[in-house]
Amino acid sequence: MPIKVLATEVISKIAAGEVIERPASVVKELIENSLDAGATEIIVEAQSGGVELIKVSDNGAGIPSSELELAFHRYATSKIGDLDDLEKISSLGFRGEALPSIAAVAEVEISTQTSSDPIGSYMCLRTGEVPRKESRARPQGTTITVRRLFRHFPARLKFLKSVNTENSHIAHLASQYALAFPEVRFSLVLDKRPSLRTTGNGDLREVVNEIYGSEIAQRMLAVEQKDGLSKVGGLISAPSLARSNRNYLSFFVNRRWVHSPLLTRATEQGYRGLLMDGQHPIAIINVSLPAQELDVNIHPAKAQIKFCHEQAVFSSVQKAIEEALARTPIASSKAVSFAMDSRQWEKPRMIMDNEAVFAVAQLPALELPVLRVLGQLANTYIIAEGPDGLYLIDQHAAHERILYDRILAQWSQKKVEVQGLLQPTTIEFSPKEEETLKASKELLAEFGFAIEPFGNRSYLIRAIPALVARANIIEIISALLDNVAGQESLNPWEEKIAQSLACHGAIRAGQQLSTEEMRELIKQLEQTKQPRACPHGRPTMIHLSAHQLEKEFGRIS
Hints:
- By secondary structure, the chain is α+β, with helices and mostly antiparallel strands.
- The protein is built from 16 helices and 23 strands.
- A hairpin with a 7-residue loop joins strand 3 (107-113) and strand 4.
């Protein structure tokens, strides 16, 4: 085809595709506009995952009647004026693409009132056109209603996930902005059901209490660090509150919610030696920098940024977290003690690996020889002798494999053993966790969980699988929802649930076992389908053959 300039309609649809990925993208753009307008209260409503309805109301400055239509033109904005302003952006929005992009893929209504206009204005848009505009009385602020998102874009609609999943994205996004702006009152209503409400009193810990629950909020540690370039503030968790994924890491740079590998690495580096592999902290980190130290214009959805002095920011965040952790008595905790033991063990293991001493068993479904227990190393590894040499067995990984096979077997045969609780356990969920729970509650019931509503985002746990009865119930439920969040197919959910239950129900590293307990563990491991690997693929044992021993001791060449 010959080169030509695209039609305006095509251009707008392409731009909308970059900015509006899913319903949560609409909510993000509208919340940012409300915050830029100085709103102290923002109400978000969504129905059917945001496809049928998204409504965002605020008490911000409003849009003058004379500028209302202009606000829906591409690149029309009140937030920057010239090229120099791009070097020092202080607002969340600045491109003038949000409103026209939304209007290009949905039906939009806007009602707004400024302090200077005698009466408010109303306007509706259909396929980017304005069929109606009129005056309407209302309090100061703006309400934007978006209906039938992607109605004329079936290709985009088919890529959306379930209603619960889309609701969880909206809930997560609203929660993030509530964390970034604790002085703003946020309300979220999903399918006519209240999901989130913050006080707007400026206390970040109270917002954490609303989103993650009172137990987490009370145990979070304050972070505060200031140097010549940046200021770091927020809250972080003690190592004992670790989670199994990074979903609880929230980073804000000049109040902008961002996804930053650099800040993620800096945060986890601050916890170095305090968390086991696969564990991640809860963190709400706000980094304040001069606007000219950032480039916020590198991502279509403004979700990523670039720092001028990356290493300096990295060091500031890492130092702030290390100092916050150092102010608590965690240095003498069991987690640190084990981390030291583990590092001491890893060093000789690494040396011997380099000399090709260990043959790490990662073979499929091989039977184990008869093993004789000799003892326990570092309260973590079982030492056993077999006819072909020495075995070091990771007690946690081995027990994980045992429990995983049993849990899946019971589930597949619909014979899950259930342990009723004499005293029901109360648990509070974040908005996103609650949506995940609703999507997976039937499958969780099949695995032996009896969970019922108990007030606003509070639930009662009345029964759990008997195989994990001794584990921390709240920790298990939180990890389960973390592991299945965003998974659409039920097949992976079954495995994810079984893996999570096995991991949290298994014997821990650092737990002393009697000789009889070690024998029983090995006996049960021998009966599993894959005794040489845990459900995550990590080896359960290391084998040092008799031949290798003789070679290392110089008995053979």
